[in-house]
Amino acid sequence: MAKPQETYNKKEKEKKRLKKREDKQHKREERKKNSQGGDLETMLTYIDEDGNFTDTPPDPTKKKKINAKSIEIGVPKREEEVVDAIRKGTVEFFNDSKGFGFIKEIGTQEKFFVHVNGLIDKIQEGDRVSFELERGMKGMNAVRVKKG
């Protein structure tokens, strides 16, 4: 059987591979020689009470005791708005064909959406009405709207 031919290119690639391996070994030995020990204490970093990194451990006398049971995990419950039962206002805009409009409250000048399904009496623009509020998908809606 014939011996595989070693070309100049193959020899050069092999030399580069060997050189790379030797360089890697040399760097590894240098790192081991120059390292300052690998014990845990030299690798630890602490954070002081101001949030800065330091290599000295914190003072145990300044340690604060925290009750783990007092930590609440999750989103705090939102308190529901307490609304007056019956409010008074005027119809600012109402479109009969589309079945919705807006009522402006007399005291606060706030506007509330009203839908035809929330009406007790038939209303028009400019009518004085009394209504109750209910939370809708996009905010507070006027419901149980009647003239008066």
UniProtKB/TrEMBL annotation:
InterPro entries with a match to the protein in the record: CSD, CSP_DNA-bd, NA-bd_OB-fold
GO CC list: cytosol
Listed GO MF terms: nucleic acid binding
Region of interest (Disordered), residue spans: 1-42
Residue ranges constituting the CSD domain according to the UniProt record: 86-147
Comp. bias intervals (Basic and acidic residues): 20-33
Source species, domain of life: Bacteria
Pfam families referenced in this protein's UniProt entry, alphabetically: CSD
Family annotation (Gene3D superfamilies): Nucleic acid-binding proteins
Protein known as: Cold shock protein, CspA family
Species, as recorded: Reichenbachiella agariperforans
